[in-house]
Hints:
By secondary structure, this protein is of the alpha/beta class. It has helices at 5-23, 37-50, 63-72, 120-127, 154-162, 178-187, 216-220, 240-249, 252-261, and strands spanning 26-32, 54-61, 77-80, 95-109, 117-118, 145-149, 173-175, 191-196, 205-206, 208-209, 227-235. It folds into 2 domains: 27-103 and 227-269, Periplasmic binding protein-like II (D-Maltodextrin-Binding Protein, domain 2), CATH 3.40.190.10; 104-220, D-Maltodextrin-Binding Protein, domain 2 (3-Layer(aba) Sandwich), CATH 3.40.190. The termini are far apart. Mean pLDDT is 91; it is low at 2-23. This is Phosphate-binding protein. Belongs to the PstS family.
Amino acid sequence: MKKWLLPLLGTVLLLSGCSKWIDRGESITAVGSSALQPLVETVAEEYQTKNPGKFVNVQGGGSGTGLSQVQSGAVEIGNSDVFAEEKNGIDAAALKDHKVAVVGITPIANKKVGVTDLSLENLRKVFLGEITNWQELGGADQDIVILNRATGSGTRATFEKWVLDGQTAVRAQEQDSSGMVRQIVADTPGAISYTAFSYVTDDVQPLSVDGIKPTDENVTDNQWKIWAYEHMYTKGEPTELSKEFLEYIQSEEVQERIVPQLGYIPISHMKVERDWQGNIIE
């Protein structure tokens, strides 16, 4: 054999061995809600560190994408801010719901608009296009620039359900990513949008509604009504790695340490419970 072939052969054998080692690993994919994505990514990284050879691939795309992909069998877990029953085209009976947290959702504005509190009625009028200048709300003489999450977003569905009473927001620029929404609002004069508490930073102004501040405490007793469960759906009962990972993210260790650390609310901290139609369960 020619000498120059020996290193090449060694490389091929090494790669072949690595491939077989990788094949022996287990992997699952969780797709969907961008509001839930930071939590699932953080927990997945910790889980993988503790369990070498087990991989959890986490992607965004919105709640609608997560529900449709888990229903079709394209992924093992579909992450969603809304109940499966709320999405057209989704067979909720075929999916198993695993609630892993609660997320508060707040309207956010550019810090220079001069407004920190809105009535629910005026907030609704802003997103329906009936109020178009911050001056009408006691703020700066500045046109209101609305930024919506994309159609299919669970964050948008929750906001429209509780703020717009199920109506659709006025046509405006849309963004798929919660992080991008925050950045655009911070950089755009007169901008307003909405995002999960976990995405709020000092770059934007969260808005109180009817004098009630968007805080975890106000969510737990339903004073702040713009909130949603964070769901991780499987097609039927989870098995193997999916089951192990879901048990880990629902464990007391994760719920009491990582969940609040990232700006979410543990399910166990809630003083009320809602069904998929938004009714309080006694």
